């Protein structure tokens, strides 16, 4: 039977604004971008469990935006494509913050958010005049997981929201189930694949292309060599396994040591792809987090938060930047809870999860020795040295070429001198590649200001970088003051004339 929750897209938008405006009054309007994005993701996952996808879903998706925000512009083809790429439900970071704030202040904003989410998703489920059991089950799963965060955080109890299962109108198969890929049988008839066969295997990254990208990185010669050695080791290991030969135990987890901006994240992303290309990992995605993405403010909550991140990283690489901060807070710090959760996951998912921890050399060595489990699992170290002046210059040159800027010979000379000085005068805050990026962005601003002052700039003017574009006007060297030209002698030429006597008396009048 038809659902009573069906509304026109225009009516739904008014309902969406009423719900979100009420939430922002007790929460914060600054959450609008994150909330709209989260609601859209929930809608896509919800509709993957619907009976079908049509233009009404498109119209409804284009109404998911808060007051003052830009309206989305979904089309049927890209909405359907996004729905087919349905991902695991993950509570948004802002919800964790809401729950922590509620627990401290004795408020219930996070539980109000859960009721709001339930209402909005029920309207979205009813867009086709039908709420399937699968859709209601998904809404229940979302609210249960958010409620669990509130419970573990210590948010006070509040009135219960609606039960989505009370509004089911049919048990129709989901859109994904009904549109599973078909295979051709030997008799010429189409047969549906089994659910486990219907999942399309992710396309493996191209090993040779990734190695070319590795070789193209500026500097890092030792790191490149060690990565190539590792890949050869893994490839031969796989071949031995395929030929039923014994292989010694091997840890694929790594420690990256070095200052910021030395390419650690870039190399981690390449390694995740290379591992997938070889077959060590099933997907090869890189999930990058720091302490704030793993640690919460209450007992038990950190484990849940860390597990959520681990789930998103399965099949790929979990990259933890400044990992030493997890162990720097003392015995009662929740960072230790994150470490224990991480160690268990590395054991439970050792065949499809690689963890790379990164940070400054000294603190990272202390981090690894802080827990026997870390020492046993991380035994492969990569050292990322600072870039010298020539390497910084090469990174800057690549940025210019990538963005269609050209340097004059004088600019090249001035830039190299600037980066040599930057390297020689570096301190503990030296940012390596990040500093180069900042220099490039500053250069673009100065060059734009200079060109904007021209009356009719040519294309060459638009792409030319001059020495003065590299530094602030007050830092430019003073230009030598040109000597004024000598004044021309306008006196009559008296060459050869006999000078008058200086003491001659004036002639008397007669």
- What proportion of the residues form beta strands (DSSP E)? 5-15%
Q: So what's the CATH class of the largest domain? A: Alpha Beta
Mean pLDDT: 82
Proportion of helical residues: 40-55%
Largest sheet: 5 strands, parallel
CATH architecture of the largest domain: 3-Layer(aba) Sandwich
Structure classification: alpha/beta
If you had to describe this structure to a student in words, what would you say it looks like?
This protein is of the alpha/beta class and 510 residues long. It has three domains: 169 residues, no CATH class; 178 residues, Rossmann fold; 84 residues, Orthogonal Bundle (Helicase, Ruva Protein, domain 3). It is built from 20 helices and nine strands. The strands form three sheets. The protein has a five-stranded parallel β-sheet. Strands 1-2 form a two-stranded antiparallel sheet. The C terminus is likely disordered.
Could you write a compact summary of the structure shown?
The chain is α/β, with parallel strands linked by helices. It is about 50% helix and about 5% strand.
Main attributes of the structure:
510 residues; alpha/beta; Helicase, Ruva Protein, domain 3; 5-stranded parallel β-sheet; two-stranded antiparallel ribbon; 20 helices; 49% helix
Chain-wise SSE layout:
Blueprint: H1 9-26, H2 32-47, H3 55-61, H4 76-84, H5 93-105, H6 109-125, H7 133-153, H8 175-178, E1 182-184, E2 190-192, H9 195-198, H10 207-216, H11 221-242, E3 254-258, H12 264-278, E4 286-289, H13 301-313, E5 317-321, H14 335-348, E6 354-359, H15 361-368, H16 372-377, E7 381-384, H17 389-402, E8 406-407, H18 409-424, H19 433-452, H20 459-463, E9 464-465
